[in-house]
Amino acid sequence: MHIAIAGNIGSGKTTLTRMLSHHYGWTPRYEPVDNNPYLEDFYADMGRWSFNLQIYFLNKRFKEVVEISKSDEVVIQDRTIFEDARIFAPNLHAQGLMSDRDFANYCDLFDLMMSLVNLPDLMIYIRSSIPTLVSQIQKRGREYEQTMRLDYLKGLEDRYENWISGYKGPLIIIDGDNCKFGDDPQAFKHVVDLIDAKLFGLFPV
Fold first, then answer.
1. Are 50 and 97 in contact (CB under 8 A)?
2. pLDDT at residue 141 in the model
3. What is the pTM assigned to this prediction?
4. Residue 157 CA neighbour count, 13 Å, CB half
5. 3-state SS string over 41-78?
6. What values do phi and psi take at 145, rounded to 5?
7. Catalytic residues, which ones?
8. Phi, psi values for residue 168, rounded to 5°
9. Cα gap 122→115, rounded to integer Å
10. I need a labelling partner for 168 at 20 to 30 A (CA). Which of 44, 82, 141, 181 fits?
11. Distances (CA, A) of 38 to 11, 35, 50, 120
12. Which CATH architecture has domain 2-200?
């Protein structure tokens, strides 16, 4: 089974992935951030490194999806291949940070990959406002993220909402502004109840 967690930068995907993997005994797959050879360069010069970064993520994510499809384990994934292609790459292109040529090349590659994979068994989307995202980005203190532009985050937020509104697979939406699952055991229990109801047909208490 493939469980995926989606959400904007700083929404709490990694925290929720870790908590749910511990609660259910699922195998976590975390976003490749710390060892990413392009990320710091990208935040310093988005136009120069956008295509390189997105191809890196697409490659890593496709490998993960193929491995998950062959696994007998229940895998929970921190960020999905769909976010790269439906949100991050189009946002960079729309802001003039990825050329038409590179974007077309990227989309062709993504479409080929999508012909070979299925949707996750459950998508969990963490919906968070820009103030919440900024607060959490500052709190975790990654130096390369501190120069991130607000219009970049806002562009991502708009595309997330557009994508999730048309998503066709099993879906749970978490209110990241008010459901503080990382700090509040009752909030985390609420998330677990929603998942149990969706996956196992159990009614939330």
1. yes
2. 63
3. 0.86
4. 17
5. HHHHCHHHHHHHHHHHHHHHHHHHHHHHHHCCCCEEEE
6. -90, -15
7. 78
8. -100, -10
9. 19
10. 181
11. 22, 9, 9, 27
12. 3-Layer(aba) Sandwich (3.40)
